[in-house]
């Protein structure tokens, strides 16, 4: 029995190496793509003593008119409102031609003209924000390591070494490929990157465990089966299952992308990427690694 995956193994390995090298090169040079909340960015914070008679919205309108005059654009999902309209925070990737003193004077003068001198007092701050990128990378590495150890220990207890190793390889591989493809595709990473990577690793581990059980069943039915025959049979039999699982994940992901606000769209894209990566890794990698580790002809 022939197996197209086994025959194209070298091509698949080269493609995998290209993705990993390209992904981690981009990650090393550019880092993850992040929105203003999770990237080096700038903030303009507006606070007002009281929000009565529309004073908060009025001050907000003055700030936004000033930003329009300066040609400074911002995205709607990068504006945060708190304390019942008393505080507004604007976030930017770049900030030019904005003077904190000038903006403070403008807002307070406009409030005085509309409501009377000193009735409402506004304070505007312009700040640069630099996130703790090293901490983000550390959490990613920690989550991947914990997921890998848990999966390996469980399978080592319940299954044998070949099953544990092949599932571990698929699980870790899915997490690593997810990170590399996040860097390549430039999907905004935060705040879901760790959850997305863990989802890819765990889902690949679950799918791989099922594939390993299928391999064991084929060996039980035919003890003289060769590595090539085992890989071909398992790949053929598990194709529909992996397609259905990937399809279900795609439906949920697309729903989030279509109907969700901005950050849920990023979550949908990451979930879609995690689903594709985990199913492909489990489908291609697990039967190959298991047949290589297992003592077969």
Give a written overview of the molecule.
- The chain is of the alpha+beta class and 297 residues long.
- The chain contains nine helices and four strands; from the N terminus they run H-H-E-H-E-E-H-E-H-H-H-H-H.
- It has a four-stranded antiparallel β-sheet with strand order 2-3-1-4.
- The radius of gyration is 26 Å and the shape is elongated.
- The model has no long low-confidence stretch (mean pLDDT 77).
List the main descriptive attributes of the protein structure presented here.
elongated; single chain; four-stranded antiparallel sheet; 4 strands; alpha+beta; 297 residues
List the helices and strands and how they pair.
Blueprint: H1 4-7, H2 9-30, E1 41-48, H3 55-69, E2 79-82, E3 87-92, H4 100-115, E4 122-129, H5 133-158, H6 161-185, H7 193-221, H8 227-259, H9 262-293
Antiparallel strand pairs: 1-3, 1-4, 2-3
Helix pairs in contact: 2-6, 3-4, 5-6, 5-7, 6-7, 6-9, 7-8, 7-9, 8-9
